[in-house]
Amino acid sequence: MNRRDRDTESMELALRLAARGEGLTSPNPMVGAVIVSGNRIVGQGYHRRVGGPHAEQFALQGAGRRARGATLYVTLEPCQHSHKRTPPCVPSIIAAGLGRVVVAMRDPNPRVSGRGIRRLRQAGLRVDVGCLQEEAERLNERYVHWMRTGRPFVILKSAMTLDGQIATASGESRWITGLGARRQVHRLRSRMDAVLVGVGTVLRDDPQLTVRLGSTDGSGRAARQPLRVVLDSTLRTPFSARVLQPSGSARSPVRTVVITTAKAPKRRIERLRARGVSVLVVPGRRGRVSLRACLEQLGQLGITGVLIEGGSEVNAAALREGLVNRVMLYVAPCLLGGQDAKGMIGGRTPTQLEDSIRLSELRVRRVGTDYLIEGIPRRSSSRPRGRHGR
What we know:
- By secondary structure, the protein is α/β, with parallel strands linked by helices.
- About 25% of the residues lie in helices and about 25% in strands.
- The strands form 4 sheets. A 9-stranded mixed sheet has the order 11-10-9-8-14-6-15-18-17, sandwiched between helices.
- Helix 3 links the parallel strand 3 and strand 4.
């Protein structure tokens, strides 16, 4: 096997290892590392949880003295800075006597970007960058987006009929899709930092917005509960709403944040906070919570990925403001019909087809009795902005 093939094979393994940390490392990235001496893997590891050892440390610990002169494959540039809970990896890599380091992608974190690579080269190590870079960026797309924009990566999910309806005229929507699709949505929730809805969804459906998969998310690990986020410009959410009720365990409580505007009554804000519910006041936009301001606030809290499960008005605002990074549409093989049913996207219809929201990189697959359509909407560019991380 030539060097290029060996590099690719080893980095593929590192990427698979990194993916095991999905939903557990945020706001840190997922990282995998493999150490190869000759043609043998002598050490490997991945970042398992936020605040825990990095992938490189696990790999070096496994390799021990066999790391000397070996090659380290790592999916993200090793860190050099110490502004975090764990020690930097670069000094450990240098001390281990490695001969070569292969990095899939530079870290977009301005505290890291280029510094780790430069320090390794200054220490005399050969460093190659860019092996399976696209795959590495795709794996950590939420982290990369958060670092570059200051906002979380947004997935808009909706369950709908073949003719694009999400509810009947009376508001009935349970259940449009089947059990297989609903189970997959709970697994998706467990891998996101936050789940977001509008107050209309709370008033109509009274959702819990929790992950309900038993003790695990289907992969054998404990299910992780996301932050529950409600957009409510005037605080109409009833105090009895299930999304406000304490949930989870003492060790892993389910938290809720209500995002409102200056129009909200101060007394209701105080009552919610007294119940342990976080309330954030952000600027309004056309009488509603500014979704962009909301996402910026969540980004400052270290939220890197948000799943929007709101109604048609929240969907419309997110899409038309160019804030959605991916759509996931669960489509049931049925037709609802009628002009008074609830469509997936609210608001006013554009007058020209050229103003429609177009999707690229479409993927269609079957999920139980339904179909999942995924795509990337056309979105506006954002000026890069640095954030804290790793």
